[in-house]
Design goal:
alpha/beta, Rossmann fold, 7-stranded mixed beta sheet
Length: 188
Amino acid sequence: MTLSRRTFLQGAAACGAAATLGLGKSIAAEPKKAVVVFYSRSGNTEALARMIGARTGLQVLRIDVKEPYAAEYSDMTYVARDEVQRKARRELKTPLPDLTSFDTVFLGSPYWWGSLSVPMATFLMDENLAGKTVYPFITSGSSSPQGALDRIRELCPQAKIGAHFYVPGAEAADADNDVAAWLKKIGF
C-alpha cells in the first residue's frame, strides 16, 4: 500500500493528537534524563567523566571538597584511609544542583582503601538517589572496585545500581574505546 504525503501527514497528526489526549501509546520512548557526577583527586576519574559527557552530551558535575587533600599521594593516603575506616564525612565545597529531575546518574569515584572515596560518600549521604538508576564508574591504583560498589549499594539502598565501569587509574586517559563500549552496552 502506498500512502500519499498528505495522507501520511494527516495520520501522523492524528496519532500525535491521540497521544496528547492519552488515547494512544507514544512510539518513541521518553528520553532518559541523566547526569554525570564525579569526584577526582588525581584526574583519572575526571578523565572518564569527561569521556562519558562528551559521548552522551550529558551535563558533567564535579564534586569538590572545602579542604582539599594533599596533592602528593603519599601525604594524603593515610588521611584517606583513616576517613574511610571511620566512615567520615568531608565538607563539600559547593552543593550540587537539585538532582530530582534526573532518573539516571553516572557516578564516578576513585577507589580508596577498600571503599568509595570519602567526598563521593559524603555526596551520597546528602543526596537521595532513591528510584534512580546509578551507573558507577571507578578508578583504582590496583584494586578491584568491589568495595566501592558495596558502599554505593549501602548508601543508595533504594536506587537501581546498573552495570559498572572500572579501569585502573593509569589507564583512564586511554579508555575512550572501552567507555564507548560500556555506554553502548547500557543503552547510552
